[in-house]
């Protein structure tokens, strides 16, 4: 059974994008740190790569990056870092370091004799986080019912808005059936939301009470809708926790079954049911008042409504503020209001499309991975997946998030002003046949996306000119046009922790950078005035050492590569590289400067060491492995110190060999 240094669990309310983006970020961060990791994902299709008891027992620490319940009790006894899923995307390195920090507290068990069915989860997280994750657990289980039901009901309207009414001339039997099935699915929204809020707090016993309380909120007495469902869920969970305290004197060994099957359900359903029956009337008044207020804004102040909805949807990209707007839209959909959701959907679709506009307008300001992500966001945005914008927002939140808000607000305002209706709660452009003015709606969304995209491009250009493009070491080295599959760089050699000399020697057995480096290709004490002079020196040196045939051509390739994104790293190191037809084989040059020169670097420090790669125009891809091994060497503090201290070509050659 494989053992892992770190285990993790990720999950989000929709289970579509955040979940897997956090997984990827944590895996890449662990790989860079030379650690093994296994990530369990809680998506809409269920739990993928579940952690086994043996894997949990063999791990050093746990990272939970989730907005929903992931059953943290099983990690009792291990150091646990528990954060929202967005943090797993933004700062995976920090989370892993924090989890491995000896000062990180270990998760305490729920209690003696606790079982999954009878005890509430103790996740080690704060009360605020617990309230939020419980709500998101309910939302994540509710969404498939809402989407399935909403789309089927919307399709039924293709036969006419009254096609399900037998007394109307638009009546169609098949449309009526679709409407009935979709309505049944939508009707489960309230009880499912309530049940899974309670389940996150008090496991299976909470689930039972939550379903009953949710059904009462849905249609018992005076149904209180989704606000009542939220109250019912929390109330159900708290009632179970209270009963667990009340009956703690009954030994678990003899009475566990009695408590779980009889006492908790019977007493709990009676208590919560009575409370909800009494609370339904005031909750219905509150719910109806909120919906009436929003409906009134649609007609009297669509601009104000659009600004509010747009700002909410682009504030946290699928987080609690975004979900508040989305839940309101779904609740209004269930009441037959298709206007509100149109603005919500427009505001959610615009941000990821804006990232594609931004990287297209200002390619030089974005790294290669960011450009790829921007283009992929065309697909994500078109299908109503807002989360694709998160990496761009996280890069410069104080500037980028307001830029997203402006575009989303414009898209929502234009949608409300023109009275566009969207009868389905999800799907993006897939549901265009169901929209009353589809082309106009798409136009408004694109206008909002372009506005945000222009602002993002300007902000990124300003940041790049000041700090340089923040690409990763390996990515920056490999951004040469025509490079082979970048995945090779991760598969070529194993990662290893700092200061591990035995693994360092193992790495250098294959694709040793020293294989393409000779003492003649190393020069120290070179005096140049700026970056371009340094690149010109490298190009001339390549020709002088018979590694290339045309110094001007190689220099042009160096400069073109820098235009794509700076090859300045950090700690005084730059890794310029050129690929040209006049280069015969992969080679390596090292030049140490007498005086550091200005270069766009991660840490803003000047450069005094250039490690350059010369790459043939038609290359087998081997240079990727040399680049990869060199990049990995530069992650070792000891190696970098020795590199900076080396003064002669012989010292530098021995260091790389």
From TrEMBL:
Residues 515-657 form the PTS EIIA type-2 domain. It is a multi-pass membrane protein. InterPro entries: Bacterial_PTS_Sugar_Transport, PTrfase/Anion_transptr, PTS_EIIA_type-2_dom, PTS_EIIB-like_sf, PTS_EIIB_2, PTS_EIIB_2/3, PTS_EIIC, PTS_EIIC_2. One of its GO terms (molecular function) is protein-phosphocysteine-sugar phosphotransferase activity. Residues 131-469 form the PTS EIIC type-2 domain. GO terms for biological process: phosphoenolpyruvate-dependent sugar phosphotransferase system. The chain crosses the membrane at residues 142-162, 174-198, 227-248, 260-279, 299-317, 338-361, 401-419, 439-460. Keywords: Cell membrane, Membrane, Phosphoprotein, Phosphotransferase system, Sugar transport, Transferase, Transmembrane, Transmembrane helix, Transport. This is PTS system fructose-specific transporter subunit IIABC.
């Amino acid at each position: 059974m494989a053992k892992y240094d770190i285990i993790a669990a990720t999950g989000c309310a929709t289970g579509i994008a955040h979940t897997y983006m956090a997984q990827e970020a944590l895996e890449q961060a662990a790989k860079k740190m030379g650690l093994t990791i296994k990530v369990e994902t809680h998506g809409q299709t269920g739990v993928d790569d579940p952690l086994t008891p043996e894997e949990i027992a063999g791990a050093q620490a746990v990272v939970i990056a989730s907005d929903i319940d992931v059953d943290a009790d099983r990690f009792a006894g291990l150091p646990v870092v528990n954060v929202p899923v967005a943090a797993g995307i933004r700062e995976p390195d920090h989370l892993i370091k924090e989890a491995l920090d000896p000062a990180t507290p270990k998760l305490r068990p729920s209690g003696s004799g606790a079982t999954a069915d009878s005890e509430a989860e103790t996740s080690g997280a704060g009360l605020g986080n617990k309230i939020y994750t419980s709500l998101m657990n309910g939302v994540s289980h509710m969404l498939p019912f809402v989407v399935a039901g909403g789309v089927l009901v919307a399709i039924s309207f293709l036969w006419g808005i009254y096609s399900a009414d037998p007394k109307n001339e638009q009546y169609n039997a098949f449309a009526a059936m679709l409407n009935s099935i979709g309505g049944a699915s939508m009707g489960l929204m309230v009880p499912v939301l309530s049940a899974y809020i309670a389940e996150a707090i008090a496991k299976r016993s909470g689930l039972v009470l939550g379903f009953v309380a949710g059904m009462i909120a849905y249609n018992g007495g005076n149904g209180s809708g989704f606000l009542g469902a939220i109250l019912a869920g929390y109330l159900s969970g708290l009632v179970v926790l209270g009963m667990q305290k009340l009956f703690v004197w009954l030994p678990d060994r003899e009475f566990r079954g009695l408590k779980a099957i009889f006492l908790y359900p019977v007493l709990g359903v009676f208590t919560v049911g009575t409370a909800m029956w009494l609370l339904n009337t005031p909750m219905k008044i509150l719910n109806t008042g909120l919906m009436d207020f929003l409906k009134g804004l649609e007609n009297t102040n669509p601009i104000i409504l659009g600004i509010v909805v747009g700002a909410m949807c682009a504030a946290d990209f699928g987080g609690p503020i975004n979900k508040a707007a989305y839940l309101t839209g779904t609740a209004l959909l269930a009441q037959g209001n298709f206007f509100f959701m149109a603005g919500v959907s427009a505001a959610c679709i615009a941000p990821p499309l804006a990232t594609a506009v931004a990287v297209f307008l200002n390619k030089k300001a974005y790294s290669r991975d960011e450009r790829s992500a921007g283009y992929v966001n065309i697909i994500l945005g078109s299908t109503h997946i807002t989360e694709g914008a998160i990496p761009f927002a996280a890069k410069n939140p104080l500037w980028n998030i307001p830029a997203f808000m402006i575009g989303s607000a414009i898209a929502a305002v234009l949608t409300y002003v023109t009275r566009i209706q969207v009868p389905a709660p999800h799907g993006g452009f897939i549901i265009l046949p169901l929209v009353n003015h589809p082309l106009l709606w798409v136009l408004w969304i694109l206008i909002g996306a372009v506005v945000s995209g222009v602002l993002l491009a300007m902000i990124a250009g300003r940041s790049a000119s000041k700090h340089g493009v923040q690409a990763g070491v390996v990515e920056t080295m490999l951004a040469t046009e025509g490079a082979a599959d970048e995945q090779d760089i991760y598969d070529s050699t194993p990662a290893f922790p700092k200061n591990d000399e035995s693994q360092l020697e193992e790495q250098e057995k294959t694709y040793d950078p020293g294989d393409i480096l000779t003492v003649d290709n190393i020069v120290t004490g070179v005096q140049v005035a700026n970056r371009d002079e340094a690149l010109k020196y490298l190009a001339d040196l390549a020709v002088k050492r018979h590694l290339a045939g045309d110094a001007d051509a190689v220099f042009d390739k160096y400069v073109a590569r820098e235009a794509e994104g700076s090859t300045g790293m950090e700690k005084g190191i730059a890794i310029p590289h050129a690929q040209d037809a006049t280069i015969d084989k992969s080679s390596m040059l090292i030049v140490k400067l007498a005086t550091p020169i200005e270069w766009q670097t991660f840490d803003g420090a000047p450069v005094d060491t250039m490690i350059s790669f010369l790459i043939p125009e038609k290359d087998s891809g081997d240079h990727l492995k040399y680049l990869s091994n060199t990049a990995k060497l530069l992650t070792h503090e000891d190696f970098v110190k020795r590199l900076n201290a080396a003064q002669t070509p012989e010292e530098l050659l021995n260091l790389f060999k």
